[in-house]
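Weekly puzzle thread! Below is a chain. First person to post its structure in token form gets bragging rights.
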Amino acid sequence: MRGAKILASMACVLAPLGCGDGESPAEVASSGGAGGQAGAGGAVGVQISGLSAPVEVSFDDRGIPSMSCQTNADCIATLGYFHARDRFVQMDLRRRISTGRLSQVIAEGLRNAALNIDVENRGRYSTRTGEPLESSIVEKSDAETQAMMEAYSRGVNAWIADVKAGRNGAQFPREYQHTGLLDYDAARIPEWTPSDCVATILALVDSLTNRAGVEIERGRHRAELKARFGDVQGETMFRDLFDIRPDIDSPILPGFGSATASLWHAPNRSVISGNPALPPGPGPHRGLLDPLLPSPERETGIGSNNWVVSPDKSATGNAFLSNDPHLGMSNPALAYLAQLDSKTHGTGDLHVAGMTFAGMPFVLIGQNEHLAWGATNSNFDLTDVYVEEVSADEGSVTFKNSQVPIIEKKVSFTFSDGSSVERELQFVPHHGPVLPRKSASDPMMTLRWTGNDIDTDVNFLMKLAKAKDVFEAQTALKSITGVGSNWVVADVSGNIGYFPYNRVPKRPWATGYSPASGVEAVPWLPLDGRGDFEWESYYSYDELPQVINPDLGYVATANNDMTGALFDGDPTDAPHGVFQTNIEAGYRHRRIMDLLGATDAHDMASMEALVSDTHSLIGEQLVPHLLTAASSLSLSAAGQKVLSALAQWKFGCPTGLTGTDGAKAPLVSDAAVLQESAGCAAFHVVLLDINHATVDDEGVIGERGPNLVVVKMLKGEPTLEGGEYWDDVDTPVVETKDDILTASFDAAGEYLVKALGDDETQWAWGRIHTVTLRSDLDTASGGLVHDFNEYGFANDGGMFTVDVANPTDDITQAEGAAMRFVCEAKPDRPHCTIQLPGGESSHPDSPHYLDMLPDYLANVSRPLPMDVDAERESAETTMVLTPAP
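Winning reply:
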């Protein structure tokens, strides 16, 4: 939302361009596209400088490349070429976003909006003293990592050279030929550098670890509630409406650090002295990266699942691993699949396969010959926002009773016509970048974020790629300082491990809170910046939650509470200190743990069934209460249909359709499946209506789906300090629970009848719950360029299901699994399967444009290539890349 507001001014300029609504939806996915792959024709002549020997690349029937190389660097350079060939817009936009170079390609009429974005993002992606963060990280990387980034850059630049020379079928991407928004051509593509490799990942790391936006929004909502309802009632309402405890208690490592849980609310704190009051209203924007890479605090679909299972719980005597990272549903897909092998026929020591990230020369999630690994967002609290006391001349801030000069950096920004302007960026050295102010009357706020101090993180990727067991993987992961992930690993010897390694700040003032201290502050709100609420140091990695070969026989993560510290809504009373202040609701993790514990005979089938599970645990918990409450209501005929559908529901969420086209696919013939589909549709629509009717008037919907207040009131839990919130304070009458539920059931029924027909037994969830694959240009422009989107794919799952498919307010799905990755670590090597929501190529005329999407929507996996000889034998096409003279 915030990023879209920045670009709202573009709408007036782009409106006359007539951006289309795209083609008919699932037809594209079903056919897999047509024609040859753009940029691939004549590629037998591809040459890359620095190759030590020819590289043979075999492409399977889905276009996944398997590279047989002489050296590690040869494989990495080749990966760079194919990333650029298949995903250049994706990787080029990523580097521009993070380095403040978007203005270089934006048309003249939009340059001011682009400049504002560039200025803000250049400040964010800097060190705390104002140096470019990507350059700092490259400098602090080890020699091997730097060499791999150099090799990758050579591969990318070989493709760029082919585009400029018009050879090997390389073409300037279609998206970049969008007139009106862009002013860009092939001749102006800048060379790729190692710093660009790092820049491409910074916005993703930011979206997963930087909580500044949500902390500021909370602070402003707190001020708004107090302004509307008075200090005492407003503070009470704030604690209820912004309660940080999970909906359902399900920790990753129960009992870690002797954390205890309470069934009641946290102490009644005023949280005044250390958390300064902010002006009421929504928080400031964060810039272009918001729509490009949605933040976990803003959308319920962002998150991830992963788990590992030991041989003791396995039918085969082998360990298992599963991972499905949840991010924006994009076109092209976030992941690019590849196999890199310099061992079998070369002299290198690299043989990996899995998810690569266009712009980065490594496998992020995947396998080697000895182990497999996966990652989810840890939801560690790695951010604080400080409200600064500024001197009269605004040249310094007060810190520990002294004046500290504000660092001012002059930075030049270039436009598409070659002209440039200079802007000044500000940094407070002990905190970080000065955040943009919404208005001149806003206080100066700064960001303290572990991301601004990242240094050795990139090193872990090559170390992990060559690790031979869980223990070597653990060592490799200790290179991480700011990525903020829960890593799970399973090896061929049957070992499993969980390692959420990151620099986690120690906040001594927020640990072991005592009212007698006279100082009150919580780290999930903006803090007084004068020096009383600083980070002392970081927890050692040995102090963080982690486990190798757990007694339970498995461990799972789902962006949830690690230790149970938030079960009472107050992590400051946990004996281990504050690790997390923002977590997911807990339903996914509880469901995963229930199914992992249901048998001691897991196999690949049970793993793939679990990652595809669409059972609604929130529905199972809430529907009995809804049925009881609604049974005495005077509902309309349409509202009665909702009640009827809910009464028959067994909490599954199938689409109810025989295909993936939400508009055209026929209904399934199985009445039981349709019944589940109808119940799922009824539940989601009525719950969203109840949520809006209950808390819209208080100015907040909820950060993780339905507000916890709504869940508690529907369950009848007596844990709300402010009583009940059924009344709409914006109307002169006092609404009751019955009033709100009646209106919500009737509104939901009216919507569903209009959308799906009068017969509630025929309501197909997939008709309204559809996925749009948004192009990077559409997300980057705040939703103004629809030409390259793909629309209307019916998908199963729902709110907080393991196969995550949380609906937005219009019931469609915007986020989901960026891939599904399941492995069995057999004695010879891990054998893994993969699902991808799209295809390897971003070019519509390629046969590998969206060709893996139908299987993804049907939860059908395919083996991940991990044998270059087998891939050569079965290859759809083969290419040989040679050293440039």
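Puzzle host: Confirmed. Bonus trivia for everyone else. Residues 1-43, 259-272, 282-301 have pLDDT under 50 and may be disordered.
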